[in-house]
Amino acid sequence: MPSSPAAAARQILIRLHEVMASNINAQGKLNKVVEIIGQSLSSEVCSIYLLREGVLELFATRGLKQEAVHVTRLAPGEGLVGTIAGNVETLNLDEAASHPDFAYRPETGEELFHSFAGVPIVRRAQAVGVLCVQHVDPRRYEEVEIEALQTVAMVISELISNAGLVDERPGDARIAGTGTGVASGLQLVMGMARGHAVFHQPRITIEHTVAEDVEAERQRVYSAFTKMREQIERMTGAAEFGVDGEHQEVIETYKMFAYDEGWSRRINEAINSGLTAEAAIERVQQRTRMRMRQIDDPLLQDRMHDLEDLANRLLRIVSGQLGTAAQLGLRQDAILIARNLGPAELLEYDRRRLKGVILEEGSLTAHVIIVARAMGVPVLGRVPDIRRIVGEGDLILMDVAENRLLIRPSPDMEEAFETKLQLTQKRRAEFSAMRDLPTETLDGEPIELMVNAGLRDDIAALDATGAAGIGLFRTEFQFLVSATMPQRERQQRLYKDVLDMAGDRPVIFRTVDIGGDKALPYMQHDDGHMEENPAMGWRAMRLSLERDGLLKAQARALLEAAAGKTLYVMFPLISEPWEFDEAKAVIEKQRAWLIGQKKKMPIAVRYGTMLEVPALAEVLDILLPKLDFLSIGTNDLTQFLFAADRAHPKLAERYDWLSIAILRFLARVVRECQAQEVPVGVCGEMGGRTLEAMALIGLGVRRLSITPASIGPVKAMIRSVNVTELRQFMQNLLVDGTPNARPPLLQWALDHGVEIN
Fold first, then answer.
1. Among 99, 243, 552, 711, which residue carries the largest CB count within 10 Å?
2. Where does 181-410 sit in CATH, by number?
3. 267: number of Cβ within 10 Å
4. Domain at 5-169, CATH from 3.40.50.880, 3.40.630.30, 3.20.20.70, 3.30.450.40
5. pTM for this model (two decimals)
6. 668 CB contacts (<8 Å, ≥6 apart)?
7. 38-53, pLDDT tens digit by residue?
């Protein structure tokens, strides 16, 4: 066996090329293929299973009983072969029978063989078969052999597809839809949109996998890399978000992948094995996809999506199929449909015509979502069947808040949607007209409405909404969109820009909440440990106190940025008072050092914490005298109170924010804060919903920090409620012990003319 994967694969491909060019039928070619592979790898058994009628059928074999051909059949997920196809993964076992998924088929005669290795045969990102080898002696196949098998599997994919031997995957057989369809997914960017379906790009089908001239293929790839990098450079310069914004940092991270030498080297190695340029790119991408399936970290998965976006771009260039919907131009209002999108690809679209985006995949942490939010484009993700149920040009109505897509709607549906859209726009205009009116109740009680932010562009919402300030600035966003740790100077520039844009309005900076469920690829556990419960793990202040260099750098950046102003600092995930003491001491030590350096400092520093961990409620008598303010983070608090992961689909809506348990807990916290005259607010999603916000105000909360879109509806509710009457009603409600306060609260709002949306 040759020492390198490229040499091993090339040796096999030379022989396969002759088979592919011969005039014998497809079955005969497969019979020759298994002989060639078996001989080349010195393996007693080589078998090919293909997907037919939903099951994997033994199509050809060397070493197993010939009478098993077209007789042995395995469902996806059944046996080792079914596991490989079902998971689209490689298996390499020295003792096949010891694997929990092993399924013995006596008709094959495979009881003689111990070792087993198999790779999926992939077509259009879907497993359509399995190529496997077996050996009498127990042994693990070498990496060079596995690499050779994976390369050969691509050639087999071409052969079987051209011969029509396998079923097309269901997703490729699009339903010629004429009736109305409805779909739902994951709410990524809120909004409503009307437009016609446009597919971002057709899947490029690779027709030729075996290279005639390796050097010519290599030059094609080199040229394609140059063109792709030029494209990325142009987009970087043309981005409409300013040269120092976080969105620019997203593009810079994306660019880093484009210049990754490891990626280009792996493609070059695949070409050396005898693959065409297109097949080499796809070969490397298949390997990336397999790795993605093994990654649990959502942030790393999103970074891998950026790499896949680049691979698709490179594939389009090298194949000459350059026409994405963006390059061809949008001719009318469009709803863009894609499996996934990179941030640069989204920026290519005409923002005047692009009304919404639907993704087959997608997640809240993806780079493209940050960019889409800044563009004001609604996005619905995790819609797996969208390519099957939608045709090019179909009318789509998107209502992300309702988690609903209406496809080819009836005239009545369209009319209802347009009515809601107009009402939404009308209400938005009414809220805008309300911007400068005082935020106070009918009986004159002032309520402070602030906005949550995390990006420089978010600050514009202050003027647009008339908000009193920023009640939560998530400083970790800058870390999440950066390829490397943001340096102190960069952090300082961002914080200063935010403070300058806010003017006299307060900005509460939450120190960085990373780690755990917001893992960064450039900041890993020293022990490489994978956390089972990351949201409750080594994150936020726990991580910052351990790696105090991170907090020190952020402290200096905040202090210098706030020179001449009042600086508000808030610590996340404080569980005990000593954590607050240590965090504050870090800030104060940096403050003293900067004073010694004659640096201009804030006129005052106000310290607060997030209340997210229920344990903190038991020590408020110790903590509150040390605080200038307290903010309740209802998102984390709720999941900790109910021991319910808010990301779990079965638990996401199981527990109501208006549960009496939550309301009683919050009431106790508010009472203690009022007794010690410490301002208390809410900066979680609960405060952005009108009925929940009404309940919070009834408990005594006088500061809400919410999304900019929620400011108008919540302000309208505040100006329509009598807080004296509400407070009495809430007291009675808590005493009565109604399990769920939502129905009585809603009825009270209706009876008293409170505006609830």
1. 711
2. 1.10.274.10
3. 24
4. 3.30.450.40
5. 0.57
6. 617
7. 888 888 999 999 988 7
